[in-house]
Amino acid sequence: MIVAEYFDAIRRLPMGSLKDLTGGAPCVILSPHPDDESLGTGGLIAAACDAGHRVEIVLITDGGASHPQSPTYPRQRLIELRRAELEQAAELLGLPPDHLHHLGLPDTQAPTEGPPFDAAVHAIAAICIHAGAKSLLVTWDGDPHCDHQATARIAEAVCRQHPQIALWAFPIWGWHLDPAAPLDRPPPEGLRLDISAQHGRKRAAIDAHVSQMTDLIDDDPDGFRFTDQTLAPFVGPYEYYLKVSP
Predict the structure, then answer these.
(1) How confident is residue 70, by pLDDT bands cut at 50, 70 and 90?
(2) Do 187 and 9 form a contact (C-beta atoms < 8 A)?
(3) Which domains does the chain have, with CATH numbers?
(4) CA count, 13 A, side-chain hemisphere, 131
(5) Which pLDDT belongs to residue 156?
(6) Positive or negative, the Cα torsion across 69, 218, 149, 155?
(7) How many CA atoms does the CB half-sphere of 176 hold within 13 Å?
(8) CA separation (Å) from 237 to 77, 169, 198?
(9) Nearest CA to 155 among 166, 146, 144, 142?
(10) Rounded distance between C-alpha atoms, residue 41 and residue 193, angstroms
């Protein structure tokens, strides 16, 4: 299988409901960076809040490396900005600020092993148990970003320890892999979630991450910015969730 075939199969996943994903119970979403939660699961968050279901977001890294050369937004100011953007996005989706959790790990340094990894697993498991979560949602382990892959590993470890929690993955940067590249994976299993009713709020939440979506920070030639092309997979009427067996 090649990447194009795999993602065509994702686009054809059967339709599912919020209840199929969460069991009608609380859920926890792991966001490697501020904005992944809105891009991948903004519709689900809004739908769950509409239904009165509890949602917890755990931000893994501080997002402080997106504009490393900016003199006007040095690292600490950027971290504070991105945290404020996340809070604004969550509010637009209907999520109270006390449902946001921050592991505070440095951007690009999410752990894959050792004591820092174990500490992250422990912290997230505690949040899941306290919330009574029946599902954990995380970025796809095939995303070509070290923090996304590390966060997926952390989620798998949590669900191995707590097998009553279902694990779902949502692609972010996987959508932009080379379509012709080989992909040694079985066909995807999962579902599509119709988020048409939540589309406007999801887009507003994405746009709340101003530092990533606009030229707000214009003094770093190597700074990150989304484009219409890189945003395209996230502004349609569906979200895509892959079932993961940890």
Answers:
(1) very high
(2) yes
(3) 3-244 (3.40.50.10320)
(4) 27
(5) 98
(6) positive
(7) 13
(8) 34, 18, 9
(9) 166
(10) 10
Which residues are paired to 239 by β-bridges?
193
Q: What is the C-alpha separation between 121 and 152, in angstroms, rounded?
A: 11
From 164, 163, 145, 151, select the one nearest 121 (Cα to Cα): 151
Residue type at 148 in one-letter notation = H
Contact 134, 90 (CB under 8 A): no
Query: In the chain, count of helices (H) and strands (E)?
Result: 9, 8
What is the C-alpha to C-alpha distance for residues 152 and 188, in angstroms, rounded to an integer? 16
pTM score, whole prediction? 0.95
Measured CA angle at 229 (ends 227, 233), to 5 deg: 115
* Closest CA relative to residue 133, chosen from 48, 46, 22, 19: 22
Give pLDDT tens digits for 146-200.
Answer: 999 999 999 999 999 999 999 999 999 999 999 999 999 999 999 999 999 999 9
SS3 (DSSP) at 20: helix
- 62's tokens: 């501080």
